[in-house]
UniProtKB/TrEMBL annotation:
Transmembrane segments: none annotated. It comes from the Eukaryota. Coiled coil: none annotated. The gene is Cfap46. InterPro entries: CFAP46 (IPR039586). It comes from Rhipidura dahli. This is CFA46 protein. GO terms for biological process: axoneme assembly; cilium movement involved in cell motility.
Length: 153
């Protein structure tokens, strides 16, 4: 929340979304956020695709969204229990589609211009550091997404 407030004025007058654990967004809220944005940030627990319905996402057309940043794949005991309970009801193929590379491909097929995503599990603190570095380079310094990812590496 501090990072969003710090960079609020540099990027846009209007940040829209769900912050914290106020509520779990419905599929309609996910759709509204993705279709009405030029950039989308997911900073959360487990895999982004475990939060949205696959059939719903692949049917979307979201060309206005030029950049999706997925700072996900963070695991806690509680999130691991939730994802384990959810995965029991999914096929192996469905679970495979939730992996980072597959998620990036699916988002690209819906019209997203660029996707920045993690490839392995991490911590909330490491993702906070990545978010700070991303925003500093993208928003303060005006670097491209490609240059910013190179800096992150």
């Amino acid at each position: 929340k501090e990072i969003l407030e710090k960079y609020h004025d540099l990027f846009t007058l209007q940040w829209e979304g769900v912050i914290g654990n106020m509520c779990v967004p419905s599929q309609a809220e996910w759709e509204q956020l993705l279709t009405n944005c030029s950039a989308f940030l997911f900073y959360g627990m487990e895999r982004f695709m475990s939060h949205v319905l696959l059939n719903w996402l692949v049917a979307m057309n979201i060309p206005k969204c030029r950049l999706v940043i997925l700072l996900d794949v963070v695991r806690s005991q509680q999130s691991y229990q939730r994802i384990t309970n959810s995965d029991i009801h999914k096929s192996c193929l469905r679970i495979a589609l939730e992996r980072p590379t597959e998620t990036a491909m699916l988002l690209s097929l819906t019209g997203v211009g660029s996707v920045i995503a993690l490839q392995w599990y991490t911590t909330l603190q490491e993702n906070a550091e990545r978010l700070e570095l991303l925003f500093e380079n993208l928003l303060s310094f005006g670097k491209t997404a490609g240059h910013t990812v190179h800096i992150l590496q």
